[in-house]
Design a protein that fits this description.
48 residues, mainly alpha, 33% helix
Length: 48
């Protein structure tokens, strides 16, 4: 299970939508995911 539900499908159906790599974080895992989130932001070009 991705944890994203239908988010990708919902947004990709919009005209002009451009989606990148997804990142699903479950509520109970938030405190342990800082390295994963940082890596995801770097790959997306949102963190130097």
């Amino acid at each position: 299970m991705s944890g994203l539900g239908t988010t990708g499908r919902d947004y990709s159906s919009r005209p002009g939508a451009k989606l990148g790599e997804d990142l699903a974080v479950r509520g109970q895992e938030v405190r342990e995911t800082a390295p994963a989130v940082e890596g995801w932001l770097r790959r997306a070009g949102l963190l130097a």
